[in-house]
Amino acid sequence: MDTLLAFWPALAAGLLVSATHVPLGMQVLARGIVFIDLAVAQIAGLGIVAAAWAGLEPQGTALQSGAFGAALAGALLFAWTERLWPEVQEAVIGVVFAVAASASILLLASSPHGGEHLKDMLAGQILWVRPATLAFPLAVTAAIAGVWFAARGRVGRIGFYLLFACAVTVSVQLVGLYLVFATLIVPALATRRFGKGRLAACYAIAAAGYIAGLLLSTSSDLPPGPLIVCAMVAFGLPVFCMGRRVSA
Asked: Domain total for the chain?
């Protein structure tokens, strides 16, 4: 308990990410566009890398604007391609992800700390989250969750992509791309056959993964991001298998 109290900002960051990513992940799975989170997160990351490459302050408003602008442009692109070519949407998402990732690597290649920046973008630095950095993500999370639950998912195709882009842009800077993907997909996949109580079960899996991963990280001195991903899968796998047996 003392360990969790010492690292409560990291846990709070994980729970904030879960607040929006759990319901959005259920919708992503239902739409069959599983890798959109990786693509949008990578596009937001490209916006951050490009802004930093241009010499903007790391925590400045201009850099945040670059991240949000890139993610929103990517979201509108995917909304457009889904309308035109729904049968190949997943392939389009994969190609855009590869291009955004390659562009980020090219921009980071000229930076002496490019490898470290790339690692931070992928695995995140959740243990370094501080209380002061949670105010903006809290406001954005509350707004997204309010719109999503008030509309009960009736936000339309473009609305869904725009909300998704805003959520992912904030979360990828808090916890990294791998945790963004895991929080979106693992709980939704594990509970795919649930009916009543599915949302609560998803939140429980996500919270358990963050708590267990942070505890393991502080006791083993291993990086928290990969541990949280593995812990979330460990909690989700029995639920996934149980759902298969029930439906058989």
From this structure: 1
Cβ count near 193 (within 10 Å)? 14
CATH number of the domain where residue 69 is located:
1.10.3470.10
Continuous H helices in 85-221: 89-108, 114-123, 135-151, 156-175, 177-190, 198-220
From the list 198, 155, 225, the residue with the least C-alpha distance to 14 is 225
CB 243 within 8 A of CB 194: yes
Whole-angstrom distance, CA of residue 81 vs CA of residue 164: 16
**Each residue's pLDDT tens digit, 99-144:** 988 988 888 777 655 555 556 666 667 888 888 889 988 999 999 9
Look up the pTM and report it: 0.84
pLDDT, position 237: 94
Distance CA 70, CA 86 (A): 22
* Domain extent for 193: 2-247
